[in-house]
Amino acid sequence: MKDKDYFVLTTNVDHRFQKAGFDKHRLFYTQGDYGLFQCSRPCHQNTYANEAVIREMMKAQGYGIDTDGTLILPEGAAPKMMVPSDIVPHCPKCGEPMSMNLRADHAFAEDEGWYLVSERYAKFLCRHQNMKVLFLEAAVGFNTPTIVKYSFWRMTREWKDAVYVCLNYGEACAPDEIEKKSICINGDIGEVLDQL
Ligand SMILES: [Zn+2]
């Protein structure tokens, strides 16, 4: 993707796009990010990078450190389900426990970074409207289809040079209205991307 003008819109919260080296300025993690903590209330909208604390928690669960710095379980060991409560960080403002930055309920914190990247995505779409655009959808199911799938369908229909690609294992489909502008590939995404 290095030389491409792209943007990633994801409902995944697993921080894998960041880990895989995608430019975070081109990444809109709409539903939150497990790499971030927030106040559980939340009393304020800031988020906090949590890698160091999560590593501490994993060590407390019985993980050891491999030679390359990754955390692994000793052979045959099962991780402890609990961590000592004094490792759980508390909100610097109100003192309540911190929680994951995940849109699970009304308590989701949308911090400044979230708004900035949301705006950046909107501007990206504006800049590319009616240009040759590929909407590449990978592994989007019908759990939260409104965010990625339905918006891609709508823009593919409205933008005359847009093409929609649906990569999906078992649910590769497109509506009749954009049939001629759609490529649906039913298969294992890892294998399909390797073949590309
Ligand atoms: Zn708080």
What's the quick description here?
This protein has helices spanning 16-19, 51-60, 112-128, 149-158, 189-195; strands at residues 8-10, 27-29, 32-39, 47-49, 64-65, 71-72, 98-102, 133-138, 162-168, 182-186.
Helix content: 10-25%
Heteromolecules bound = zinc ion
CA(first)-CA(last) distance: 12 Å
Q: What would you call the structural class?
A: alpha/beta
Report the total helices. 5
Q: Give the mean pLDDT.
A: 93
Query: How would you sum up the major sheet?
Result: 3 strands, antiparallel
Instruction: Write out the strand line-up for the largest beta sheet, numbering strands in chain order.
Output: 4-3-7
Shape: globular
Describe it for me?
The chain is α/β, with parallel strands linked by helices and 196 residues long. The protein has 2 domains: 8-31 and 111-195, no CATH class; 51-87, no CATH class. The protein has 5 helices and 10 strands; from the N terminus they run E-H-E-E-E-H-E-E-E-H-E-H-E-E-H. The chain has helices at residues 16-19, 51-60, 112-128, 149-158, 189-195; strands at 8-10, 27-29, 32-39, 47-49, 64-65, 71-72, 98-102, 133-138, 162-168, 182-186. The strands form 4 sheets. Strands 4-3-7 form a 3-stranded antiparallel sheet, with no helix packed on it. The protein has a 3-stranded parallel sheet with strand order 8-9-10, covered by helices on one side. Strand 5 (64-65) and strand 6 (71-72) form a beta hairpin. It starts with 7 loop residues before the first strand and ends with a helix. Residues 39, 41-43, 91, 93-94, 96 line the site of zinc ion. Zinc ion is lined by residues 39, 41-43, 91, 93-94, 96.
